[in-house]
Specification:
Elements: E1 3-6, E2 10-16, E3 19-26, H1 28-36, E4 42-49, H2 54-62, E5 70-73, E6 79-85, E7 92-98, H3 111-114, E8 118-121, H4 126-134, E9 141-144, H5 148-153, H6 155-163, E10 167-171, H7 172-179, H8 184-193, E11 198-202, E12 208-212, E13 215-219, H9 233-246, H10 253-270, H11 284-297, H12 305-312
Parallel strand pairs: 1-4, 1-8, 2-6, 4-5, 8-9, 9-10, 10-11
Antiparallel strand pairs: 2-3, 6-7, 11-12, 12-13
Helix pairs in contact: 1-9, 4-6, 7-8, 9-10, 10-11
The chain binds adenosine monophosphate.
Residues 8, 10, 12, 26-28, 31, 81, 92, 97, 123-124, 147, 149, 231-235 line the site of adenosine monophosphate (AMP).
């Protein structure tokens, strides 16, 4: 039971139609690890600056997240992301990205981290993702996320990184941009042809789909009446997905399908409040209740069509 994540640990400034927050803990590795910590032991690889205080780090400690490999550069500044959402909360508008300490980061994993069974290469430069991936050659499952910035600016490096992973977890716009194919099913086939065994396409309020070479599985999103801040929903989904898999012995398709539900459950909580606020105070009972709601929401009886045909005679 051990799950390693590399990704950004950030200070986010976010504006949505419902509110504004000038500085809060964010970053792909933060959202991912808090979510995954409800299922398994998590270790974070990343870097922060001298401006990252004990108050910011406390959430890792209270969720038993191992930060041995979270380096601190005392005279550097923490990664910053400035984003805005309009009424279409599925689309994030990046106003500014400041890499700061990530610009010169060279990840060096501790011996314990190198033994991790599962690895998540969270959204960060693909060179860094690969440097981490290469230090965990025996991992049983490696998954990756990315975003438009890296698809546009570091495409070749990203394609090399994708070739070395088992699962790609991206959103629909990224799948289209990455492949330059507008049809999502064709885009999925193309990504799978590059090497990964599975592809998960996140579709915001419309749910998520899992593609393998011979199967397709899709789920809706949990129906919420009020969505406040979608920042980190994708990473929180990935945290629930990988966290659940990490708790399982068999990483087969049945486990992946259940993991998709746990990913959606965690993401549905994430969007209810700013940043990590909602997910950091979840209870097991709340997670369980929403998991059951998904089961009820997606259940239907199979009936032989002859019975329908008889009724119309
Ligand atoms: P998500 O909403 O799950 O796609 O991810 C949002 C999180 O990603 C925010 O907390 C940001 O700090 C982080 N983020 C935004 N842009 C980048 C980037 N270029 N590299 C790494 N992390 C980023």
């Amino acid at each position: 039971m051990s799950l390693l994540v590399v990704g950004s640990v950030a200070f986010d400034a976010v504006e949505t139609p419902f509110g504004k927050c000038e500085k809060m803990l964010g970053g792909s590795a933060s959202h991912f690890s808090i979510s995954a910590s409800y299922f398994t032991d998590v270790r974070v690889v990343g870097v922060v600056g001298g401006d990252f205080g004990d108050d910011d780090a406390i959430v890792f400690a209270t969720h038993a997240i191992d930060t041995t490999d979270l380096e601190k550069i005392p005279d550097g500044k923490t990664f910053r992301w400035f984003g805005r959402y309009d009424y279409d909360l599925n689309v994030a508008h990046t106003l500014d990205t400041q890499l700061n300490v990530f610009a010169d980061f060279k990840p060096k994993l501790s011996d314990r981290s190198k033994q991790s069974r599962l690895v998540f290469l969270g959204n960060i430069q693909p060179d860094l993702q690969r440097e981490v991936r290469e230090q965990v050659p025996n991992a049983e499952l490696v998954a990756l996320d990315t975003m438009n910035l890296w698809i546009e600016n570091t495409r070749e490096s990203l394609l090399r990184t994708i070739k070395g992973v088992g699962v790609v977890i991206i959103n629909d716009a990224e799948a289209r941009q990455l492949t330059e194919i507008p049809n999502l099913i064709k885009a999925a086939r193309t990504i799978l042809s590059w090497g990964p065994k599975a592809l998960i396409v996140k579709r915001g309020e419309y749910g998520a789909a899992l593609f393998t070479s011979d199967s397709y599985f899709a789920i809706p999103a949990y129906p919420l009446e009020s969505v406040f801040d979608p920042t980190g929903a994708g990473d929180t989904f990935a945290g629930g997905f990988m966290g659940y898999l990490s708790s399982q012995e068999k990483l087969d398709e049945a486990a992946m399908r259940r993991a998709m539900i746990f990913g959606s459950v965690m993401a549905s909580f994430n969007v209810e409040e700013f940043g990590t606020a909602r997910v950091r105070r979840l209870t097991h009972a709340e997670i369980n209740e929403r998991f059951s709601a998904f089961k009820r929401m997606t259940h239907f009886d199979e009936i032989p069509f002859e019975r329908v045909a008889q009724a119309v005679k």
